[in-house]
């Protein structure tokens, strides 16, 4: 068409009254892909390690709360019950406020059974979120799983904790 009217591939000049051209589809922001949460529970001496993989968000929070009933239970083989839980967050790229609430719910349950819970490997954003909420005063956070396990293994047993 002519330069005076109609459509063209060029953006409209400022003040022309035409809407600006849309950017090509591949340049638009895309919604982030949600990563479903998965978990593995293992034992390391007197600690249970709950390794989470995926997003800890509104959809995953009820599942995390459900896992707390399996933590610090009496082993079927008659061995000693674990006294602490390390929640390994190294493979959790995203945590929302509901996920933080789920972690606090698990903390309450674990402490109600006479145990302790520590976090390991949170990413920078989660570390900042926890600090801004004042949570390091309530629960301990370690950079790595190894640091968390060393802390758990080296701490004196709590009074009343199972032998």
From TrEMBL:
Residues 37-152 form the STAS domain. One of its GO terms (molecular function) is anti-sigma factor antagonist activity. Residues 8-20 have a biased composition (Low complexity). CDD domains: STAS_anti-anti-sigma_factors. Pfam families: STAS. InterPro entries: Anti-sigma_ant, STAS_dom, STAS_dom_sf. Residues 1-40 are annotated as: Disordered. Gene3D superfamilies: STAS domain. Belongs to the anti-sigma-factor antagonist family. NCBIfam families: ant_ant_sig. This is Anti-sigma factor antagonist.
């Amino acid at each position: 068409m002519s330069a005076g009217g109609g459509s063209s591939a060029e953006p409209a000049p400022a003040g022309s009254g035409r809407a600006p051209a849309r950017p090509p589809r591949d340049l638009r922001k895309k919604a982030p892909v949600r990563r479903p949460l998965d978990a593995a529970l293992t034992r390391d001496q007197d600690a249970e390690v709950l390794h989470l993989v995926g997003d800890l968000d509104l959809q995953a929070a009820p599942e995390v709360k459900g896992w707390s009933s399996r933590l610090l239970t009496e082993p079927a083989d008659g061995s000693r019950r674990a006294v602490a839980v390390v929640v390994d967050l190294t493979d959790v790229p995203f945590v929302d406020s509901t996920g933080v609430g789920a972690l606090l719910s698990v903390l309450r349950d674990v402490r109600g059974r006479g145990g302790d819970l520590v976090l390991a490997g949170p990413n920078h954003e989660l570390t900042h979120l926890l600090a801004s909420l004042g949570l390091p005063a309530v629960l301990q956070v370690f950079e790595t799983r190894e640091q968390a396990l060393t802390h758990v293994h080296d701490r004196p047993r709590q009074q009343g904790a199972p032998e």
